[in-house]
């Protein structure tokens, strides 16, 4: 399938709607999640059957949530602040795991694209530059979607222990602000049980 066919597919459209727009990062996440799920031979997680561990909080993480069914709310979407375009998927059913990590230049924009990204971030982009930025963003997204997985990623078995399932436990009032807090998240500060927000 070419990029436009992929972008027209139901699952890519769901990623686009969830994220808000098409971009290279979303495209990398889409390809990584698809590759990981295919490697595991798993279907989308309805509950906690699969655990996803992402190593970036960038655009790619949104596609991972949509395609894998792993979410913060279900406790099977884990974020590690490593700044890497890497995804680990673990199957509770089989005990197997896969790590999909971007190779060197997978999402790297060219010099013109990078300069425009910096202008956009600084709020200094004029309308002509905005149009050019959107063209380059779309071109890069298409290129990523059409590149074979093995050229984009290193894919292999993951050596990671499955985390425990999501915990449901009673809440207690914070001794300082009074807001309800998961019991295990309270901290004992000078004999008073307080939330992490109040603890600083």
Overview of the structural elements:
The chain has 200 residues and is an alpha+beta fold. The chain has two domains: 3-157, 60s Ribosomal Protein L30, Chain: A (2-Layer Sandwich), CATH 3.30.1330.130; 167-200, 2-Layer Sandwich (Wheat Germ Agglutinin (Isolectin 2), domain 1), CATH 3.30.60. It is built from eight helices and nine strands. It has helices at residues 3-8, 10-19, 24-40, 60-68, 111-122, 127-146, 149-152, 196-199; strands at 50-54, 77-79, 86-91, 97-102, 153-157, 171-173, 180-182, 187-189, 192-194. The strands form three sheets. The protein has a five-stranded mixed beta sheet with strand order 2-1-3-4-5. Strand 1 (50-54), helix 4 (60-68) and strand 2 (77-79) form a beta-alpha-beta unit. The longest helix is centred in the last third of the chain and has 20 residues, at 127-146. The chain is globular and about 60 Å long. The model has no long low-confidence stretch (mean pLDDT 93).
